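re: ur question from the group chat, yeah i did fold both. here u go
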Amino acid sequence: MVSSKMFGLSCFSSESSRDLSARPHYPSMPKYPKGASIPGDLEGSVVNKALFAVTGMTCSACAGSVEKAIKRLPGINNAAVDVLNNRALVLFYPGFVNEDTIRETIEDVGFEAYLINEEVKEGPILKCRIRIRGMTCTSCSATVESALQGLPGVQQALVALATEEAEIRYDPKIINPNQLVEAVDDSGFEGILISTGEDRSKILLKLDGVRTDRSMRMIESSLQALPGIEDIIIDPLLQKVSLSYKPDQTGPRNFIEVIQSTGSGRFNATIFPEGGGREPFRQEEIKQYYQSFLWSLVFTIPVFLTSMVFMYIPGIKHGLDTKVVKMLTVGELLRWILSTPVQFIIGRRFYTGAYKALRHGSANMDVLIALGTNAAYFYSVYSVLRAATSEVFKGTDFFETSSMLISFILLGKYLEVLAKGKTSEAMAKLMDLAPETATLLTFDSEGNVINEEEIDSRLIQRNDVIKVTPGGKVASDGFVIWGQSHVNESMITGEARPVAKRKGDSVIGGTLNENGVLHIQATRVGSESALSQIVRLVESAQMAKAPVQKFADRISKFFVPLVIVLSFSTWLAWFLAGKLNAYPKSWIPSSVDSFQLALQFGISVMVIACPCALGLATPTAVMVGTGVGASQGVLIKGGQALESAHKVDCIVFDKTGTLTMGKPVVVSTRLLKNYVLRDFYELVAAAEVNSEHPLAKAIVEYAKKFGNENEAHVWAEARDFVSITGHGVRAEVQNKQIIVGNKSLILDSGVPVPVEAEEILVETEEMAQTGILVAIDSEVVGVIAISDPLKPGAQDVISILKSMKVKSIMVTGDNWGTANAIAKEVGIETVVAEAKPEDKAEKVKELQMSGLTVAMVGDGINDSPALVAADVGMAIGAGTDIAIEAADIVLMKSNLEDVITAIDLSRKTFDRIRLNYVWALGYNCLGIPIAAGVLFPSTGFRLPPWVAGAAMAASSVSVVCCSLLLKYYKRPKRLDALQIRGIVVE
């Protein structure tokens, strides 16, 4: 048992931690045990408490999915998941559920969990990324994953076949990144460290002029003395220094200056040349496969010609049939010599891959290729050697089978790698958005520019002032301190319309300045920038496995062994049938005997089966889908979100800031007493200026119009100010008691509400406006009507969702009158108003209990519980950081239309995944029987092994190309006709 302080670290609010009632809080209740048929029967039952360590969570979305899964179990009183400390605290009724069931449920979500009896102080858990070369199918990725997962100190290892990368969460006190790379190498693949993954700024510098160890130590001690330095790693061999630092205290230019001053000008430092990106390795892999394929052609074409073409040309045929030793012919000897380099030198990669896989108790595509080609090659060697030692044996070789097989498979791998490289084009484009250089401005004490210097954009430090000229890219996140212009942010947000920027406005690194000169003060640099965070988000999304991929993973475990058994069975069946004369001798082609015919069928079965296509079916589509989504301004956090979104049949919308603009404005004022409007607003604004509520801010902004625009308004002092959450404010202004709020606040304060004011309130609510009553000295003197205008296109979006058979519901904390008026205007039939944050989450769970797959669209902190509870949480990009963190999908443009884009893209992606499985399984389901000779008795058609190899290669290429077609995704045409982003399409 643990102390209740765990709740302080958890996701519980103070209110919910006080009220852990027996009322069910979970989306679905399978059934209660006997004797507890209704929730009320649980009152007074003993509640047990269990604390689990959960590894693998990276953000609130992960914590949300774990919490959702736990709460769906019967008998869960409450659950809180703390993503920062990797803990899950569960209160449950032991008669319903036990700790093992809860642990298994957490693991089913995709995270490791174990029960702990006391809180253990753990060190920081770091995340490391490793590029892995040599993986060919899902059994390869599974081998690496299990090898990494078995290491001490590794909390979670995730290996993605499509990206050829591993993401590992590890304890740096137990294991280091180099040991992780060694583990990858030991498992039979090549591991290359991309990043150690600390969530802090990091830079690599190349040192010049350093000759001795003493020089290195001098530089290290000089850098260590700088404030904000967290870690220094020096590689003397490469003369490279890696620095981790706090960007608010220091930066890369300081490091270079310190290094240069340390050696009195003898030492110099520059940014280390980038080579850690995915693209250089991809290009190298493409080049390797291309060269291997060309070399294989050099040997394979003569083999093919001598065995299948020249035998029909009389003169050449006679020369090839010339005996060398006994029955060994020139043609057989040539084919043996030419095919050997293909088999053992060019095809060496398949031997090494097969050996490493078998050594670790798994079987992959390399095993099938090695077995198939070896069977053909070594039978041919046996045939040739027997002919060389016999006077009567006339051998038939299959050297062309082994060499052509390898050539076609290399061609297939070359095309596959080429196509896979294009799946990450969206990522490459994102990474290339940041400009290479920036213009740094230096100012004198009076604020005048005294120097302009062009620097590498990676040397920008926080609070630097950067000049951006027309047509140039913004080099860093920051805000405008001088100038005005329009900035095209479509490359980051997907927003097509240029956004006006002037002093005080924020800008995003990587966006394009269109017409004016801007001076920008950098606020977030390096890994903190919005662009870096988007890239990391998309990378993580592409690493995450969609639940549908479990299907392929399950099949791949016994796919290769099953194929080997089928292949052997095929050979044995045909061989025995030949020996027992079960088929006519006329079926056997003239050039082979029954054993050779059976061998060809067996080899064809072995090489046509391709586990690669099955393994690539889901991840390639998810990669392209998430990349396309990012380019459209829809950030999808991984395969889980993508899969859930395509099932959505009900969407819960928040009102303020989601269906409406989120910026309330005063539309009318009705005075019930003789007051000068200016004096009336002086009193009201003086009270409301102390409140943070959006309606209060709208009143204050409106009141400013009565003053001088050029001067900052100073409001009268408000004494005894009290803010009543959700109701209004009270204060004493100029010796008058002011109450500004809703009807309930006025009545609770003992102030009668006149009939005239009641009528005005009813009118405002019918017009989808919020009526605010103002009482001065215990008398209602006016009603202020505030409206939050609908977002352009909101009605059309709801209409399109209806046509997509998606039900729309509105849940808001606003009053029933306003809520019903807004719902009627947009076309939503089901409304829940005056809802607290927990009520929103309860409504979501209630809908889930009715069998619906629910998406929640919101933008505020109060929407976070519902975003986590929903099957898919969609956060408006302009909303709060907490809402964005809690959501599964972020709509960067803050447009409602992107809800449709997200659902439609998800549906298209999963259509593509299904089609990929049809391709992958179709090749095998149709190809294996044909290769086994099912058609041979009736049609005489058989599949030569080299044709089977070409078909196997084609299956992988077709799956990747099928996924690539998603790159041409266009959002539904109906969206183009909407009034969006304030633009009327005429």
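okk and heres the other one u asked abt
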Amino acid sequence: MQHNIVATIRSLNMMEGCKGPQVYAFNPSGKTTTNGYGGGGGGVGEKFLHLQERVNAVRSKSNRNYQPLQPKDNVKPVVLSEDLASYGLPQTDLIEPHIESCLKSVNFVETLADVYRRMDGCPQFEISGMYLEQCAIFRGLSDPKLFRKCLKSGREHAVDVHSKVVLSAWLRFDRREDELIGVSAMDCCGRSIECWRSSLVSGYNPESATDPCTCHQRPVQNEVFVGDEECSTSFSHGDEEENDYDMSFCIGDEEIRCRRFNIASLSRPFEAMLYDDFMESRREKINFTQNGISAKGMKAAEMFSRTRSVESFDPDIVLELLSLANKFCCNEMKFACDSYLASLVSDMDSAMLLIEHGLEETAYVLVAACLQVLLRELPNSMHNPNVSRLFCSSEGKHRLASAGHASFLLYYFITQTAMEEDMKSNTTVMLLERLGECSNVGWQKQLAFHQLGCVMLERKEYKDAQKWFEAAVEAGHVYSLAGIARAKYKRGHMYMAYKLMNSLISDCTPSGWMYQERSLYCHGKEKTMDLSTATELDPTLSYPYKYRAVTMVEENRIKSAISEINKIIGFKISPDCLELRAWFLIALEDYEGALRDVRALLTLDPNYVMFHGKLQSDKLVELLRHTVQQRNQADCWMQLYDRWSSVDDIGSLAVVHHMLANDPGKSLLLFRHSLLLLRLNSHGAAMRSLREARNQATSEHERLVYEGWISYDTGYREEAISKAEESISIQRSFEAFFLKAYVLSETNSDSEASLYVIKLLEEALRCPSDGLRKGQALSNLASIYVDVDKLDNAIDCYMNALTIKHTRAHQGLARAYHLKNQRKSAYDEMTKLIEKASYNASAYEKRSEYCDREMAQSDLRMATKLDPLRTYPYRYRAAVLMDDHKESEAISELTKVIAFKPDLHLLHLRAAFHDSMGDPISTIRDCEAALCLDSSHADTLELYSKARQRSNEQQST
């Protein structure tokens, strides 16, 4: 049976897929390739049918008759390669990194510093636009919190209704609240910053944006509305009021009695008509039939001239008044009609009905209200042809502009949603074209043109891609040169692409991506050297690891290939790298390992398609799972404990995915899923799983806990605490107490708050839960005990956590021993963690704190090798170099990591080093870059102030 899976998939004759991040080639011809890999025969449709029949046949077998495959020892690698060749062995000539579709600076620190300088001195009414620029800069970073923080700040400082509407909708989209069952687009979440009603209020008040929303409060009766009723009655009865009328408007056979003074007060044109040297100024009766308003509409206009309100009129009458107000420049009446009609917009139907009237009459608030609904329904609203036409066409953009609602901000938001949904669609192209038309300043043009180039590259329209990349370079975006080179390469000009990248490396401070891009256009040793340099300058780039691994597979060194791809998976997991390792493991007949990786891959991207888009990953799971030992849910729980105990997060992720397949919709498992994904820095996938857990919750108290975690993870800590308290009021549970304790411990660090957190965690431990979660709670409780100097209590908690296999407790226990001056015990605990943990970069880093300098350096070198994204080893080495008076080497150590990880603390430390060396200019630059990441960082603010003062003193002398 062991060749069933290979035989099944071998029967597929798959056409060669397009080049992209999925890295597996297909031999469509069935002929033997130059490297000895052969292909199979048959049509694609027929072979897919055969695969489906095979899957169904496997499914029909009874589990009790299942005999797990036993790996054969006599399968030669060459034979296995031939087996795999027909369905896509990895090939180096088809691996290709993406051109990133975001702003990318060749000197990121200087860019951050420049943005901070300009923001520090710009008028308050322009700050919102500066935050939008920060959003564009942070979009390409791995930390989504930086982008969201800028988005919030932009909304807080927004002045006009248009900006508030777009930014509020964008914040809501970023939270993906449309995925929450029972939540509609226009529901108010209770926060003023995202409330659709508060977005329609113009004015600059950044403090109010953080206030709780008051739209759920009971409305107070409007005094003007009461006046309307009284005036309406007066209009119908009373001879005394009749005597006040001194003119009439005649519309058809009807005569509408009015006061000349009241009508004249509506606008300057009416005043001129009724009081200046026009015939109407001398007539008591004026024929108004040809002015496009009905008698009922004119009666309403007369009433408005007395009451200044439209609240009592039907919507169709208000629309007539709006048209009249436009014709005769009645600003007050237009604003009243505009605001009233805007209040009627509540869903897609009303928005689509009223937006045409709003655009026709250039009603700013009405269009804003309709626009808000369309934006909050993205991306689904773009499937409406009328909405798509409005946003995508030049005519639609001009109509929006005439109503004051066409902006770079608007199209930036819409294009991001379109690119997420389908980067290659015509809709995306047209939206990006409109974005380019709305671009006013350099960075906006750079972004719009570069993204158009990326989209055209994906669409294989290489000539147009080159044109747009060239436009982006002309606007100042140097990174787009990589796009030009790629487009030239695709058009067959490989040497020109090489020359372009070679020139870029010569002209600029070299970056990892430059060498990576140049490596595509050379061969042999030169390519190998470029990839090595790329990894040295930026170890987070995945392409060099993938290329080297696939090269090893082509040389039949599969175990070496797995070791190479493990280097990046150890600190940065991605679907394409997991896919690659899965194939290597299949080649080794390690089907269980391959199944683990495919399951983990599906948690990152449930719709991921393997074999260059030829086979859904879940279909491969179906094939692979019948080659390994079948496990029930109880077996899975035991396996999860083992994976958790060995600190194998990817293995744990795969087990939970298996458990969810056995028990779909289990909210508890979905929640655990999200926690593992967060640990692996897969924030988007984690939030998706957490939202699904909330949707599948079977009780109110459980749902509130998940909503609390969603609030916490998106920056709303007070709301998270409120959700936890509400859940506890319904039913005391481990997760509710744990949530409240966790958020409070992150929010407050004083001793009184710590004691309260201890009580909450003790309450949590009294509630039912499994060992995995209780181990985490015990570890958290011990950490708080350490903070309040109760070390013996902390040690007891850590010991209890270790008893139930919470292996990470070794780290906390080591810290407690260290604080008790038991350095040897602390070192031993970390050694135990290193021996037990599958991924142990953090363990090496922490153990370095409990040994002498030489051993610490060794552990930190290992930590950096395993995870180059950890910043402590660089800071430690730099500090040691400074102590040894090797200032230049210390700064170089920090500069090396800042190049691919611009971290606040790294920038602050380098600024302090520059300051100690008497270099105020470099100090100021690094401080400004750090403050761009966090403008409230106290230590950096203090250093920045001193450096500026010193710089001014030097200039004055």
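fwiw on the second one: The chain has a mean pLDDT of 86. The first strand starts at residue 247 and ends at 251. idk if thats what u expected
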